[in-house]
Amino acid sequence: MIKENEILAEPQKTFFIDMLTRDIGITESILDLIDNSIHSLIRKKNIDVMPIITGGYQRKISKDNSIQIKIDDSKFSILDTCGGISRESARNGVFLFGRSEKERGKLGLGLYGVGMKRAFFKLGKLIKIISKVDHNIFQITINVDKWKNSKSWSFAFDPDPSIDTLDQFGTMIEIKKLNPQISKLFNIPSIIKEISDRVAEAYMLFIKNGLHITINGETVESEFPSFAVKRITPARKTLHVDRVKISIIAGLAPLESRTPHGWYVFCNGRMILNHDQTRFTGWGTDRFPQFHSKYNHFIGQVYFSSTFLDRLPWDTTKSRLVTETPVYQAALNEMKIQARPIINTLSKFYPSQTEEEEMLGKELLQDSESVTVDKLPYKDVAFGIKMKKSPPSEITISYKKPRSEVDRAKKAMGNKHVSNRKIGEFTFEYFLDKET
Amino acid sequence: MEHLEESFEKFNYSVRPSKQVERKLLMESLHFLGHKANLSIRDYTYLGFGSIYYTDFILFHRYLYIDKMICVESADIPRRMRFNRPYKFIKLKMGKISEVIPDINFNCKYVIWLDYDYGLDFGPNDNESSILDDIDAISGKLYPGSILIVTAEAEPRLSNFKENSRLSDTKRISQLQSRLQETCGSILHSKIPKNILIRKEMPGFISKTMIAQMTASTAMNHHNVVFHQIANYVYADGAQMVTVGGIIDKAQKASELRLSGIYEQVFAEKGNKPKKISVPPLTIREKESIDSKISKFPNSAQFKLNFELKPELLNNYLKYYKHYPSFHESLM
């Protein structure tokens, strides 16, 4: 019963179960669960992966820390050895919808208090969580339909399982009674491959730092993007804005890598955007050009890192940016500044205007070496290229002539099957011979 | 900037009377700000386009005591620039300003004067950054208390002089319209009408656009600052040039600036309409004759001259006579 002057505004469970889950894809949900494991690892072992990119002491993730994911059409499970959840934080923190306080003071990947629960609801109806820390182990089972219909918002501990249920300190999450659409998709090999590729990209820094992730028994391997160097100097710029460190690296991708790159954006080591070519990273805003195939070789990376997790520009899905934050605005301004000379260079290399410059661009990339981002020098520097002083010794001349006249020339040359190119060369040489 | 004529080849900077008046006015305003608005100008870093003459560098060092200076030069004349460098402390950065900005440390106060010799249309079609791009990049980064001054050409013609002379009048104007649309359209949120592409209207259009860009880009600066416009004027020694300038600082600085009296100065203009600064070319004898008649509050009506000079020009001279350059040939 509500009072006459009262207006109902309570949250509804269906909002969490059916609505919030619409904003997120399956892969993002799985990534959310991995984020939880990694967050726990970062907190317990003081892991900072940024030195890979920015230099400094690098604390390696130990071989004992791993994340194993198993996916089939009846069950999803993730088992980590990343430290586990204590009974205390399970009781009054981990399962809350939304955080009661801002996450500050330590690096990490979890800040909103929505990812794990949303992932549960997205994937299935029966969720079992077992976690072990020190000599304690607990188990929680969530039956989503039952919970939905009960008045209470709380979950309950099951009787404690045997301490040997988990070999090491860590957490095991098992999701059964998969939602029908999810179950169907988990049956498609290409979907599993897609998930694996996304995991490889999103956690490349953690994987490079020693984290072992497997999906259905296969180890996820990661590769850092490469930059062309030697005659090209990629730009690097470091900024500090509102206690967030921003590292920007931008340059040209090697010749063999023709797939469009654009910008990669990371928050605390976790990739948020990859090869972005949209307005979120400045393309097509104000006078900055739209992405175009002539910029395919542009590659830029932005790393945000802070212990003030709420100041990082990620949204709750961690696959989009909150672009209006002062931190992101400052970064975007700098990204455009650093990208501008690269864009101008690529525009000059692009065909049509002068072929000479197109040649120079190709030659520049051919002469370059390819180096992964972690091998670049750590010092701030502007983008630069060293052009060879002498212009190419050969140039191309092209012009149009009526077919009948060309045929006449061919006839005069005594071979009507000769190519147009040959006839062009012949007439030019003839002129040089007679007139110079 | 291969399609542009290098302006140092066109003229010796220091002998254009209006330019010289502008330079001295700028120096005076910086002086004024230092004294009355608590800006320690001598600790600032000056960044400008020195050209081989380095005129403003010499002036700013001698009279404002600035000794942190960066000279940006886009013409491929590194040896000539080094040869002519008047002080060793001037850091020389060869390249276009858009290539130099990525390397600049913006964690200190700057006086930046981007004294371009081309217009707002230049840029995208030449695979270069436009003036507005440079303003955007710099305004978004400047440290609170910094001063930004930008001069651009305001003539209804294309900055690419080859194109300009190749095209017929009508084609040139429609080309200019479409290029300006490309560079200025987004910041003005409007279509650029053809009727402003005439000599009389261009200065107002150019200054309005640059002010809009400075204001918008400063709002994105993470130091939480605003653009306090101080100057907006136009002069012509040949081509009309518009200069817009101001301080990038916290919003609270506004009252201090008002109280300092800067806005009552002859060069100050807070609005969108540029003030006209033009001084007549005078012979030395004419100048001396006028000067000898100047009382405490000179007024053109009181002057009886022995030669013809329009009252308007005389008035202009009286406004700026203190800054009027006098040139003598000297054998060295």
Topology (SSEs and partners):
The complex is a heterodimer of chains A (436) and B (332).
Chain A: H1 13-19, H2 26-45, H3 51-54, E1 66-71, E2 76-80, H4 87-94, H5 115-123, E3 124-133, E4 136-143, H6 144-149, E5 170-178, H7 180-185, H8 189-202, H9 204-208, E6 212-215, E7 218-219, E8 226-229, E9 232-233, E10 235-241, E11 244-252, E12 262-267, E13 270-276, E14 298-305, H10 326-349, H11 355-366, E15 369-372, E16 384-385, H12 403-413, H13 420-435
Parallel strand pairs in A: 1-6, 12-14
Antiparallel strand pairs in A: 1-2, 2-5, 3-4, 3-5, 6-7, 8-15, 9-16, 10-11, 11-14, 12-13
Helix pairs in contact in A: 2-5
Chain B: H1 7-10, H2 17-36, E1 45-48, H3 55-64, E2 68-73, H4 78-84, E3 90-94, H5 97-100, E4 110-115, H6 131-139, E5 146-153, H7 161-166, H8 169-188, H9 202-219, E6 226-236, E7 240-249, H10 253-260, E8 275-276, H11 284-291, H12 311-320
Parallel strand pairs in B: 1-2, 1-4, 2-3, 4-5, 6-8
Antiparallel strand pairs in B: 5-7, 6-7
Key features of this structure:
heterodimer, A: 436 residues, alpha+beta, Heat Shock Protein 90, Ribosomal Protein S5, domain 2, 3 domains, seven-stranded mixed beta sheet, five-stranded mixed beta sheet, 13 helices, 21% strand, elongated, B: 332 residues, alpha/beta, Rossmann fold, 2 domains, eight-stranded mixed beta sheet, 8 strands, 37% helix, 16% strand, globular
What does this entry look like structurally?
The complex is a heterodimer of chains A (436) and B (332). Chain A is an alpha+beta fold and 436 residues long. Chain A has 13 helices and 16 strands. In chain A, strand 1 and strand 2 form a beta hairpin. With 332 residues, chain B is an alpha/beta fold. Chain B has 2 domains: 7-276, Rossmann fold; 284-323. Helix content of chain B is 37%, strand content 16%. Chain B has an 8-stranded mixed β-sheet with strand order 3-2-1-4-5-7-6-8, with helices on both faces. In chain B, strand 4 (110-115), helix 6 and strand 5 (146-153) form a beta-alpha-beta unit. Chain B is globular and about 55 Å long. The two termini of chain B are 34 Å apart. The chains are: A alpha+beta (436), B alpha/beta (332). The A-B interface holds A 235, 237, 241-242, 286-287, 289, 326-327, 329-330, 333-334, 336-338, 340-341, 344, 347-348, 380-383 and B 98-103, 123-124, 127-130, 132-133, 136-137, 140-141, 182-183, 186-187, 217, 220-222, 224.
